[in-house]
Amino acid sequence: MRIILVGYGVVGKGVTSILARRYLEKTKDYGFNPKIVAIADIDGAVINPRGFSPEKLEAIKQRGYPISADPDFGHPGMKALEVIESVEAEVVVEVTPVNIQNGEPALSHITQAFKTGKHVVTTNKGPLALAMPALTELSDYNNVCFRFSGTVGGGTPMLQFAKKCLAGDKILAIKGILNGTTNYILSEMSQNRISFQEALSTAQKLGYAEREPSMDIDGFDTACKVVILANWILNKKITLKDVDRTGIRDVSLQMLDDASKRGNTIKLIGAIEGNSVTVKPTEISKVDPLCVSGVLNAVTFSTEFAGEQTLVGRGAGGIETASAVLRDLLDIRHKLASRMLNNNSES
Ligand SMILES: NC(=O)c1ccc[n+]([C@@H]2O[C@H](COP(=O)([O-])OP(=O)(O)OC[C@H]3O[C@@H](n4cnc5c(N)ncnc54)[C@H](OP(=O)(O)O)[C@@H]3O)[C@@H](O)[C@H]2O)c1
What we know:
alpha/beta; 7-stranded mixed beta sheet; 6-stranded mixed beta sheet; 21% strand; binds NADP nicotinamide-adenine-dinucleotide phosphate
């Protein structure tokens, strides 16, 4: 499987590290032979049609920015779109920064990959939040796979759990704490009795919150994940504008104290129930399995037969999220293998 990696930041570097570390085991265990044939970053690319060895991937990482200065394989100034169009590969792994205004540059990278017959794995929520129904249609039309398990829950397999482990059951509703930053802030406020502003500053100092924190604290990040869950698991054709969203700026210490007297606390919950798709601060019991603290994420699937199933895990992190990319690559590999089997049995 030849792979073009687009974006070489925290997750991109995690992907090369994991593929290099797992290379031999995966080849042995799954007949899976991943080869990174190109890496495109903002200022250029490195390309080797035969695939970079684990040693070369490590050397590229050690050498640092800009990767396109590599004397053997560097292509300074070459745009990711050109790389996707011109380099032969089966899969594009798209891990550029999120943008919920217009989804770019990822939206163009993904559609270009589809049009050139390449499967796509992404951890980028932007294009999915804005255009998930259209993108899944385009991938089907081009007969390619589109996987994005790292977009919800980081390394915690929330999408696969619902899609695969709960297959056959009917998922009636989904609710979850899907953003580690806001969960950290609310946990700090209630456990240490500090204000929202103090908790936000601590989160920023620790690197849990961005200097411009709106994406997290105004609930946009959670809303993007809710859109992905709604489309992928519940087959709803919705986008970001369909989510009724409220962030946590107005959650006060008083509100948390009042909730605590009732044995409850307040969490930023993304929920899909019937036609209602919401993100809002919600009072939940302190003994609800969903009630996790710190930067943890949790999601509860309410099902017709198996009751409530809750999954808890870290919702972010470079290597964790890269592990979701590896999972998606293996999933594509299995899908392609079964397609080949079907074609052979038909011929
Ligand atoms: N980090 C996590 O824990 C995590 C978890 C789940 C999902 N995600 C998602 O995964 C994606 C990647 O996250 P990250 O943390 O790796 O971000 P990051 O560290 O900012 O890396 C993004 C990389 O993409 C590059 N890039 C920007 N514009 C580009 C373009 N037009 N063409 C090619 N490359 C371009 C950036 O280059 P420059 O730095 O030079 O601009 C950078 O190397 C994001 O969408 C994020 O939301 C991240």
